[in-house]
């Protein structure tokens, strides 16, 4: 067992998972969930809105062009969500998730986060703290 594998058993790689929901209008969907959950908007820009509970749980809404609503339970337009998790160090987090079986996606649209695919192909992001 490698040193990284041993350390994985001792501590989590990441913390504070955040569900990110793709949608045609981030502000409108955030208002809906904000009212539903009584969580205030904590951060907002043109295409990204976050709502946050007083105990720290957060939902994020990402506006996407040419949004196609899910056709659940069908798979022609599957559900559009991904998981964001916070890591102390992006390089160390990357090495750890790659060892677990993740794949780094070729498209990296930002500098404060990195996009990976889980072993089943679902995207998730490691975000700097």
From TrEMBL:
GO terms for molecular function: lyase activity. The keyword Transit peptide does not apply. The keyword Lyase applies. Pfam families: Glyoxalase_6. Residues 19-127 form the Glyoxalase-like domain. Keywords: Lyase. InterPro entries: Glyas_Bleomycin-R_OHBP_Dase, Glyoxalase_6. Transmembrane segments: none annotated. It comes from the Bacteria. This is Putative enzyme related to lactoylglutathione lyase.
